[in-house]
Amino acid sequence: MEIHEKNNLKLGYLLTILGAVAWGFSGICGEYLMQSSHMNTGLIVNIRLIIAGLLLTILSIVKYKKESLLIFKNKKDLLNLIIFGVFGILFCQYSYLSAIKYTNAPTGTVLQFLSSGIIVVYVCLVEKRFPKIIEILAIFLSLLGVFGLATHFSLSELVISPLGLFWGTMAAISVVVYTLIPISLMLKYPKLSVIGFGMLVGGIVFTIYLQPWKFVVPTDSVSLWALFGMVFIGTVFSFSSFLIGVSIVGPVIGGLIAGLEAVASLIFSIILLGQTFTIQDLVSIALVMSSIVILSFKKD
């Protein structure tokens, strides 16, 4: 029995790590598509949401059968699903890729992790209390890290574009929205179902707005492989793998392992895109990631 539990735990760690690494890889794919293939950001988001939403929904129906469709029988939950799909998933995907477009994948990913500090502030406001010392430390480290990424710790210069900083901040806010909106849905329905249908809803709404048939999809082999990486590896595989892994290892360990996304993104960007980073960049990334580690060890 103990051997089975240990093997199951190892599988949980492996799946969670693979999910986080796959997320990091998807950011690199997105950066290549936008900066090298000059593919429209909205078009990438649209394709990603429609295809990944369909596949995750199919996976959910295969695994959970009729339970996956129960959400459509409750009008209130269905409305929350639509809000989650548009203001959670769609907003999150678009702002995150826009942050990458105007900076790079590792920087965009790290800016997105500011969401941890924002959630702490939100919780303190809701609970009408001052932040605890550990929470203040985490917020300070994350803000110091973002300051370092933006200025290289010099008040006289801004080393990333204002648009990059803006969309990075929006990405962090969008993660907060993405995290808080579906809590009640996740407790009642299969997670794959909520995420799959949420992506599909966001994709359909964005299709109506964007009219993607007006844009050109690059057809060279590298761009197509990057698009494949975004949709299948960085979305379908990553979400499925991470959710299953977290269900085994628990949310605290899962939250810690999620930080590997930024590390993986940094490594992939150096190996695959040949990017270089200064010591200030690396220190800044480490500061933001350390804030996540600190918050993950909170007992409450």
From TrEMBL:
<dbReference type="InterPro" id="IPR050638">
    <property type="entry name" value="AA-Vitamin_Transporters"/>
</dbReference>
<dbReference type="InterPro" id="IPR037185">
    <property type="entry name" value="EmrE-like"/>
</dbReference>
<keyword id="KW-0812">Transmembrane</keyword>
<dbReference type="InterPro" id="IPR000620">
    <property type="entry name" value="EamA_dom"/>
</dbReference>
<feature type="transmembrane region" description="Helical">
    <location>
        <begin position="133"/>
        <end position="153"/>
    </location>
</feature>
<comment type="similarity">
    <text>Belongs to the EamA transporter family.</text>
</comment>
<feature type="domain" description="EamA">
    <location>
        <begin position="163"/>
        <end position="296"/>
    </location>
</feature>
<feature type="domain" description="EamA">
    <location>
        <begin position="11"/>
        <end position="149"/>
    </location>
</feature>
<feature type="transmembrane region" description="Helical">
    <location>
        <begin position="159"/>
        <end position="180"/>
    </location>
</feature>
<feature type="transmembrane region" description="Helical">
    <location>
        <begin position="252"/>
        <end position="273"/>
    </location>
</feature>
<feature type="transmembrane region" description="Helical">
    <location>
        <begin position="222"/>
        <end position="245"/>
    </location>
</feature>
<feature type="transmembrane region" description="Helical">
    <location>
        <begin position="279"/>
        <end position="297"/>
    </location>
</feature>
<feature type="transmembrane region" description="Helical">
    <location>
        <begin position="45"/>
        <end position="62"/>
    </location>
</feature>
<dbReference type="GO" id="GO:0005886">
    <property type="term" value="C:plasma membrane"/>
</dbReference>
<protein>
    <submittedName>
        <fullName>Uncharacterized inner membrane transporter yicL</fullName>
    </submittedName>
</protein>
<feature type="transmembrane region" description="Helical">
    <location>
        <begin position="12"/>
        <end position="33"/>
    </location>
</feature>
<keyword id="KW-0472">Membrane</keyword>
<keyword id="KW-1003">Cell membrane</keyword>
<dbReference type="Pfam" id="PF00892">
    <property type="entry name" value="EamA"/>
</dbReference>
<keyword id="KW-1133">Transmembrane helix</keyword>
<feature type="transmembrane region" description="Helical">
    <location>
        <begin position="78"/>
        <end position="97"/>
    </location>
</feature>
<feature type="transmembrane region" description="Helical">
    <location>
        <begin position="109"/>
        <end position="126"/>
    </location>
</feature>
<feature type="transmembrane region" description="Helical">
    <location>
        <begin position="192"/>
        <end position="210"/>
    </location>
</feature>
